[in-house]
Inverse folding.
């Protein structure tokens, strides 16, 4: 059982070429309404000056910075970050400014008070503020979530969300195989097959454009379909 009055939240931030936003997101994470927090940044071989900024300004503000010697992808960065997490609860935070750390208390509440093993922050549930950007991204997210739900028999509204929160022992018990954005359907399928208790909470979302640095693309959608099939039906949970 997690002590509601004395727990540590590990925030894992995968980072690749986020020079413009990494300092701002670290400041926002540090300002979140959580008493004890461990911030872990995994720099996935950034080449835009992010690494120098991490070492010169951000290192004193966080618990740990881990550097990859070559770019491997978001899934690989999360795999590294999860290994270093020591908190009771582990939360994924993207290095851009699309997701608001002010919502951490809402995201961790189902684990502290309702027996959840994993919590997804849904961009499509509830009435929170959303920046309006790409129609086809929304369609793709809905289709991928529907396919994932069909395969796992759980009723998520946003499988592809960044905000995923786990009991540490749950996420560290899973072997993550996907190196890129296939992590999202992979972890969903593997935890569903283990009969973990899922919760969703509605979150705000401030989506960025490709000009602002958005990285996910069409090939990632095809990989997600492959991952849904593979990890739901063809591999061990």
């Amino acid at each position: 059982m997690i002590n509601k009055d004395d727990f540590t939240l590990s925030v894992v931030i995968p980072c690749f070429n986020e020079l413009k936003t990494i300092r701002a997101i670290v400041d926002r994470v540090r300002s979140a309404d959580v008493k004890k927090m461990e911030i872990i940044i995994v720099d996935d071989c950034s080449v835009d000056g992010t690494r120098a900024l991490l070492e010169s300004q951000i290192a004193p503000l966080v618990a740990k910075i881990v550097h990859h010697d070559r770019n491997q992808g978001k899934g690989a960065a999360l795999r590294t970050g999860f290994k270093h997490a020591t908190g009771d609860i582990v939360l994924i935070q993207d290095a851009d400014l699309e997701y608001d750390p002010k919502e951490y208390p809402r995201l961790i509440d189902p684990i502290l008070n309702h027996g959840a093993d994993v919590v997804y922050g849904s961009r499509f549930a509830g009435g929170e503020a959303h920046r309006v950007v790409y129609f086809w991204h929304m369609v793709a997210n809905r289709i991928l979530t529907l396919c994932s739900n069909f395969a796992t028999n759980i009723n998520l509204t946003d499988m592809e969300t960044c905000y995923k929160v786990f009991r540490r022992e749950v996420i560290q018990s899973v072997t993550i195989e996907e190196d890129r954005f296939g992590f999202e359907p992979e972890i969903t399928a593997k935890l569903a097959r283990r009969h973990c208790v899922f919760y969703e909470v509605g979150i705000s979302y401030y989506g960025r454009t490709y000009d602002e640095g958005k990285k996910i693309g069409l090939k990632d959608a095809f990989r997600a379909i492959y991952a849904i099939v593979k990890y739901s039906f063809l591999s061990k949970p």
Remarks:
- The chain has one domain: 9-234.
- The CA atoms of residues 140 and 218 lie 9 Å apart.
- The mean pLDDT is 92.
